Amino acid sequence: PQRLARLQRAASHRVSGLRIVLDNLSDVGNKAAVLRTAESFGILNVHIITTPNTAAADHAAHRQRWLKNTRRPVRSVTTGADKWLKVHHHLTAQECVDELRKDAFRLLCAKPEAPEQDVVRSDVVPLHHVDFSLATALVFGNEKCGVSRDMSSLSDGDFTIPMVGLTESLNISVAAGICMHWGRLARLEALDRVRGGGVTSDMGGEDQVVLLEHYASINRLEKERKAGIGREERKQIQEEMATRFPSTRTSKFAE
After folding, report:
1. Which of 220, 121, 114, 237 is nearest to 167 (CA)?
2. What's the DSSP call for residue 14?
3. Can you tell me the mean pLDDT for 70-92?
4. How far is CA 135 from each of CA 41, 42, 61, 190, rounded to the nearest angstrom?
5. Is the pLDDT of residue 202 over 50?
6. Where do runs of H (alpha helix) occur along the chain?
7. Model confidence over 102-131: pLDDT tens digits?
8. How far apart are CA 226 and CA 228, in angstroms?
9. Disulfide-capable partner of 137 in 19, 70, 78, 250 (CB 3.0 to 4.6 Å)?
10. From CA 12, how far away is CA 61, in angstroms rounded?
11. Do residues 144 and 118 make contact, with C-beta atoms less than 8 angstroms apart?
């Protein structure tokens, strides 16, 4: 009963109209941290753009981390949180943008407040001025190079996180966490004003029921795995889950 109550609460507090896009992040740990933070703040959808070069770097990083501790392989810091998310994988910025445009999302790219080697467009806005009542995808770029040129040219604008200290930048996972928390609160507050209070999610009732059923299936699969259910039985359950919730893809970053 307690587990079911937690699943119900999670499903009824998910936000689908605020999405996170990771544009060719090179650090596996940062990706995993963003996924874990997204789940904890109720964000449902994360889009990950991974070019072949980035994928090769990911593989090398995983191997290097494993070799450092051959007795106990290092597990992803997602700690399994990503299985509760809908993770969309893309090979190009255009592919990612096309999918988001189908659902009428606008894309805003994260840019530093006072960049030295970048030209920020005049439409850059502080995070707290972003209108989250609109379906919004926030894009976070590579740790060294920032948002790619392709994504910048395809996006609708830029935003920044105002800072008053002497530090010029934030870690990507920290920046994304701040934006997810603020964006979720701002979006629900805007919907609350329209609907008259009591809003905990921007998803419809039917969508929440489908999501809860999916979460229950995951929970069932975990229990049966611990109970020693065979590989074929688990595969059958996974196929059933994929049919009922086809847009869900488990992140490759969890081990």
Report:
1. 114
2. -
3. 72
4. 17, 15, 34, 12
5. yes
6. 2-12, 28-40, 52-67, 93-102, 149-154, 172-195, 205-226, 231-244
7. 999 999 999 987 545 444 455 689 999 999
8. 5
9. 19
10. 36
11. no
What is the rounded CA–CA span in Å between residue 20 and residue 242?
Answer: 22
> Is the alpha carbon torsion for 1, 76, 161, 202 positive or negative?
negative
Which of these, 74, 146, 149, lies nearest to 110 by C-alpha position? 146
| Secondary structure (3-state) at 18 | strand
Q: Name the residue with higher pLDDT: 174 or 124.
A: 174
Question: Rounded to whole angstroms, what are the CA distances from 109 to 29, 117, 185?
Answer: 21, 16, 19
Compute the distance between CA of residue 6 and CA of residue 24 in angstroms, rounded to an integer. 33
Compute CA 232 distance to the chain's CA centroid, rounded to the nearest angstrom: 30
**Amino acid identity for residue 24 in this structure:** N
Return d(Cα 21, Cα 140) in angstroms, integer.
6
Whose tokens are 């701040």? That residue is: 178
Using CB atoms within 10 A of its CB, is residue 188 exposed (0-12), middle (13-18) or buried (19+)?
buried
Q: Is the model's pTM score more than 0.85?
A: no
CA distances (Å), 192 to each of 120, 129, 199, in order?
33, 18, 5
Judging by beta carbons within 10 Å of its beta carbon (0-12, 13-18, 19+), is residue 1 exposed, middle or buried?
exposed
Strand partners, 47: 21, 88
Checking if the pLDDT of 179 tops 90, the result is yes
Token pair 């501790």: residue: 69
